Amino acid sequence: MDDSIKKTNGAPYGILSILMIGAFITFLNNTLLNIALPSIMKDLSVEPSTVQWLTTGFMLVNGILIPTTAFLIQKYSVRHLFLAAISLFTLGTIIAGFAHVFPLLLAGRMVQASGSAIMMPLLMNVMLVSFPIEKRGTAMGFFGLIMMSAPAIGPTLSGWIIEHYDWRMLFHFITPIAVIVLLIGFFLLKDKKEKVDLHLDFFSLLLSSVGFGGLLYGFSSAGSKGWDSPQVYATIIVGVISLVWFIVRQSKLERPMLNFGVFKYPMFALSSSISMVLNMAMFSGMLLLPIYVQTIRGISPLDAGLMMLPGAIVLSLMSPITGKLFDKVGGRILAVIGLAITVVTTYYFSKLSLDTTYNHLVILNAVRMLGISMVMMPVSTNGLNQLPARFYPHGTAMNNTLNQVAGAIGTALLVTLMSNRTETHAAELADAAMKHAAGQPSAAAVAEMKQQIAMKAMLEGINDAFLAATFIAAVAFVLAFFIKRAKQAEEPLEGKPTDKEMTAKLVEN
Fold first, then answer.
1. Which pLDDT tens digit goes with each residue over 19-52?
2. In terms of Cα–Cα distance, which of 63, 487, 32 is closest to 268?
3. Three-state secondary structure along 30-88?
4. pTM
5. Which of 75, 101, 211, 226 shows a CA-CA span of 20 to 30 A to 125?
6. Which long-range contacts does 306-309 make (Cβ < 8 Å, 24+ apart)?
7. Which ranges does the record mark as transmembrane (predicted)?
8. Are residues 150 and 226 both part of a single domain?
9. Percent of the chain, pLDDT > 90?
10. CATH classification of the domain holding 454
11. Are residues 13 and 37 in the same domain?
12. Cβ neighbours of residue 289 under 8 Å, at least 6 residues apart?
């Protein structure tokens, strides 16, 4: 994979450092935008169901491109993939920074996504082939510390920038950093890769794009168009058919683009299921909380960012701790405890009111992040640990793809539920107000009443969405009891190298 690895017995810390810096700014960009959504809604005159496309559109591109990363990692060098990824991300950041209309902003985000789709699977694959299985939990934990520091910095930094500048400054701030990382990678990454006789099956790429893209687009459109829209259910149906066709085709190819054989390893299949379900639930806090604190409570963007800071700090600091604990006790006990905390705290978020205290929100979010920190990395690492080395690119690509799909579906479901329930509650509250109104209220009283009804209805809609997220998280909690400590499977096949030989080959190339 890299000449520097070949010459040393240790892990390629130089390459890992450059890759982590690149991945860090893509993570930071995502968390920067969450606090900005209400400001973007106001400035560009878009609704919550529309602005969510800045998140789900990002996931849509990721969902389409990530399945190709298993092929790309095997075909091209780390240097070429990194430079391509960070160049696309930089271009998208520049476009978004100068966007004056929502479609242009969305286009910039989707170009950004095309870069980040390559970055994370590439980094994860280098991590997997660089550390032995008995040290992988600790390594992944420290990787998580660096990656999760982005959520710690992002919301507060975003709040401060929006408080003092236009939301476009969020992208202008990232642009010079991305350019510097691009230059560092260009001059310092010198790995070489022997020419690999590997060709992309373009029909598989078409099926994958239509399949994952159709599912993501269909679920994401449901928030604005409704589930009864032909555009919604038709794209979902086409997506499902294409995805089934894609899976069948991959099973028949000698060198599949994305190897679904990873699911014959039970711990990987289980870890993927838990991660998908948790991702669906997790996005409730990421999307709904900023809307609640800024739109309903009128809390400033800076204070909203500061509210998220303790939780993000807990998430980042716990990552190396849970990594070490994973190496000692395995993933099940961590996942069970973490998911129990996640379920309880998500339920309490479904009890928000118009006068919920700021400190209550800070503590509840911090405890929720504590629970999530005990689940994500240990569960994912345990599943990947069971795979033979030749399946690492496919395992990381599969995990990232499914997490993007689950996140987009979860976002669409929760935002749609919030919007629909808000309309229902608004109608109920309006009827109740008219029944109790004495005489003919003045125009000013009617206007004030409508504003109060809108706020109360949105609050109830958010609470209903959090309650749904509670039940989703509970599914992951039940699945966690079936986790067992994974051992790497050996599957030497006739005429093919063993996993140990394949690992050595991956490191050498």
1. 788 888 887 777 677 778 888 888 888 877 678 7
2. 487
3. HHHHHHHHHHHHHHHCCCHHHHCHHHHHHHHHHHHHHHHHHHHHHHCCHHHHHHHHHHH
4. 0.73
5. 211
6. 306/155, 306/156, 306/159, 307/155, 307/358, 307/361, 307/362, 307/365, 308/35, 308/151, 308/155, 308/156, 308/365, 309/152, 309/155, 309/156
7. 12-33, 53-73, 80-102, 114-133, 140-162, 168-188, 200-219, 231-248, 268-293, 299-317, 329-349, 465-483
8. no
9. 16
10. 1.20.1250.20
11. yes
12. 307, 308, 349, 361, 365
- Whether 421 and 390 map to the same domain: the answer is yes
Residues 121 and 173 in one domain: yes
Domain termination residue (choose one: 256, 290, 321) = 256
Are residues 232 and 331 both part of a single domain?
no
Instruction: Report the alpha-carbon distance of residue 103 to residue 209 in Å, rounded.
Output: 21
Q: How many domains does the chain have?
A: 2
Domain range holding 248? 201-256
Is 149 within 8 Å of 316 (Cβ atoms)? yes
Structure tokens at 452: 């109060």
- Count the neighbouring beta carbons within 10 Å of the beta carbon of residue 288: 22
Same domain for 217 and 196? no
- CA 295 – CA 133 distance, rounded (Å): 47
Number of helices and strands (H, E) in the chain?
19, 0
Name the helix (H) or strand (E) containing 173. helix 169-188
Joined tokens for residue 419? 């919007």
Q: Is 434 exposed, middle or buried (0-12, 13-18, 19+ CB in 10 A)?
A: exposed
Assign 87 a pLDDT band (cuts: 50, 70, 90): very high
CB burial of 22-53 (b: ≥16 within 10 Å; e: otherwise) equals bbbbbbbbbbbbbbbbbbbbeebebebbbbbb
What distance, in Å, lies between the first and last C-alpha atoms of the chain? 4
Task: Give the end of a domain, one of 256, 290, 322.
Answer: 256
250 with 106, same domain: the answer is no
Residues 7, 84: one domain? Answer: yes
Structure tokens at 409: 């579906």
Contacts of 205 (CB under 8 A, 6+ apart): 68, 257
User: Which residues fall within 8 angstroms of residue 21, CB to CB, at 6 or more apart?
Assistant: 181, 184
